[in-house]
Amino acid sequence: MPARALAEKRPWLLASLIAGISYWFADHAAVPGLWLIAWKGAGVGLLAAYAIAHHPSRDAHRIALVMALGALGDMLLELAFTVGAVFFLLGHLAAFALYRRYRRTDLGMRDQLPALAILWGTPLLAYGLSHSGAVALYAAGLGLMAASAWNSTFPRDRVALGALLFAASDELIFARMGPLAGNALAQALVWPLYYFGQMLICTGVITTLRARGQFTAE
Q1: Within 13 Å and on the Cβ side, how many CA atoms surround 69?
Q2: How far is CA 142 from CA 88, 118, 119, 176, in A?
Q3: How many other C-beta atoms lie within 10 A of the C-beta of residue 22?
Q4: Where in the chain are the domains?
Q5: pLDDT for residue 182
Q6: I need a surface site. Which of 55, 96, 112, 123 has the fewest CB within 10 A?
Q7: Which pLDDT value is given to residue 9?
């Protein structure tokens, strides 16, 4: 979609892209702390606005809630890390509840095996990287969210992929607690994996709900 059409039909999505991409550069510049925290929250917060602004259905509002919890988590991580993690965990549980409503009914072994690998592999890897039980507990919620996205009827190349990018971003954060401490590449990848993961999740859910006739607004 051309930039002008995107600005006219989906201004909240365009604003989110601008905020989300520019934050990566702002994080490497001398931006004052409170402004940088607000900037960080704006990327995914504007995805919540996109989801709720012109999409009148409960499930659109549910994915807006997931994005809003993520945006709050983004900002609170900078102020109180544990509190921010709790908001992210709440977001994972809200996403799981949504994906569970759209669970595939024809799941075979080719579906179940990757889902089980995601479900159990996410917290196990997190524990192996961080050696923290609290991190593993959080990652269990992350794995539950990503596995349920995989097993949902939302498109895997959008929603499940986005969930996996989100999980990869968090695993890099955990790796920076241990084997990748001080690694510049790991630090540089955390934000783009997370933001574009959230964007794929949000737009994938909204596009699918629209295609299924829940609403017709752009």
Answers
A1: 19
A2: 9, 9, 8, 18
A3: 14
A4: 3-211
A5: 86
A6: 112
A7: 64
